[in-house]
Amino acid sequence: MCDRIITGALVVLAGVLLIWAVANAGIGMKAPEITNETWLNSTPLHLADLKGKVVMVEFWTFGCSNCRHVEPYVKQWHRKYADQGFVVIGVHSPEFSHEQEVENVKRYIMEHDIRFAVPIDNDFSTWNKYGNRYWPAMYLVDKQGVIRSIQIGEGRYRETEDLIRSLLAEKD
Predict the structure, then answer these.
(1) I want to staple 31 with a disulfide (CB 3.0 to 4.6 A). Which of 75, 102, 130, 141 is the partner?
(2) pLDDT confidence tier of residue 24, bands split at 50, 70 and 90
(3) CA-to-CA distance for 80 and 86, rounded, in angstroms?
(4) 15 vs 165: which has the higher pLDDT
(5) How far apart, in whole angstroms, are the C-alpha atoms of residue 124 and residue 72?
(6) Cβ distance 60 to 67 under 8 Å?
(7) What's the pLDDT tens digit per position in 1-14?
């Protein structure tokens, strides 16, 4: 019995370490461009044009309960820091077929008062460029276009906001 408990704990620990390693693999790398053709709430944004701004690239889908739990924080940060040079790009990468319908995404962002840019990533091209594997995932990109933090899932809201403020305070 004790051996099973230890084995189970080791399997869980290995899974946590794997997720941590994947999540941190992109830190320090140049953020990939977002090249999706369809954008809601904005014309297409290019990271090269956003140099000097702090960017959050958030991967989400409207049917994901974890994404819905993160949503109020992302909207609040967008409202609070946009005038200081903070840009949110909410990459909508669908999990289910009904989430691929652009009209459904439009309806959701209208009903939930989402005002930041939302590229539609139905082919997962941006998802794959980032090597992303999770909903939600938030990549914080500094003023030089380098990924400085990757937050997978819910939580760490205070730490994320502290990092946003810190990145905004850095010199260009």
Answers:
(1) 141
(2) low
(3) 9
(4) 165
(5) 24
(6) yes
(7) 556 666 655 555 55
The residues that bridge with 49 in the sheet, in sequence order, are none
Tokens of 56: 């959050």
Cα dihedral sign for 120, 124, 125, 130?
A: positive
Q: What tens digit of pLDDT does each residue of 62-71 get? A: 999 999 999 9
Residue 156, pLDDT score: 96
Residue 87, strand partner residues: 55
Average pLDDT estimate for 90-111: 98
Structure tokens at 48: 């090269």
User: How far apart, in whole angstroms, are the C-alpha atoms of residue 8 and residue 137?
Assistant: 27
CA–CA separation, 74 vs 80, rounded Å? 10
**pTM of the predicted model, to two decimals?**
0.87
Question: In whole angstroms, what is the distance from residue 159 CA to residue 141 CA?
Answer: 15
Closest CA to 102 of 145, 147, 74, 61: 61
